[in-house]
Amino acid sequence: MKKQQQRDTGALSILLITLMALTIFPLPEWLRPLRPHWVPLFILYISIFSPKHSGVIRSWLLGIVVDVITGSYLGLHALMFAMTSFIALKFQQRLLVSTILLQLITITSITTLNITIEWIVREFTDTMPIMETIDIALFWAPAITTPLLWIPLFLVADSFTKTRS
């Protein structure tokens, strides 16, 4: 049992490092607005399927790391990740047994909440509001692209962490 838990921790760590690399990986200008929110997907996965590896404080610290790596406002991702973790842990039992459709609706809602928080923070802190700098429809694009990657992420993470008979 202990070896399985160590293997799960190692596999989840490798998955997290991979997803953080995808978060900072440079994309062409036209593709950048479509970048999914990789780390919140990871937080949702571990909060639902491996809550012993999750937590609001861990997610908050992970958000601080992402803020530093990406050069965004310090605390922006920390707030979004902590809220993601809190919501997922609060409804963990329900999400664990729910259908994939309900999980996708939940992920879309949480992603939309995260984008809304980002929009509010940027709107009040930037010298040039978002409405003037980018197409507002593209700003909300991760609310579509992120849930689309839930099933592939689930399959990859599940294959890494589950034992085979």
Descriptive report:
The chain has 165 residues and is an all-alpha fold. The protein has one domain: Orthogonal Bundle (Arp2/3 complex 21 kDa subunit ARPC3), CATH 1.10.1760. Helices cover 75% and strands 0% of the residues. It contains ten helices and no strands. The chain has helices at residues 2-24, 38-49, 56-70, 76-90, 92-97, 100-125, 130-133, 136-139, 142-148, 150-161. Helix 2 runs parallel beside helix 4 (76-90) and helix 6 (100-125) runs antiparallel to helix 9.
Name the descriptors.
165 residues, mainly alpha, Arp2/3 complex 21 kDa subunit ARPC3, 10 helices, 0% strand
Portion of residues in beta strands equals under 5%
Distance between the termini: 14 Å
Reading the helices and strands in chain order gives HHHHHHHHHH
Class inferred from helices and paired strands:
mainly alpha
What is the topological layout?
Blueprint: H1 2-24, H2 38-49, H3 56-70, H4 76-90, H5 92-97, H6 100-125, H7 130-133, H8 136-139, H9 142-148, H10 150-161
Helix pairs in contact: 1-2, 2-4, 3-4, 4-6, 6-9
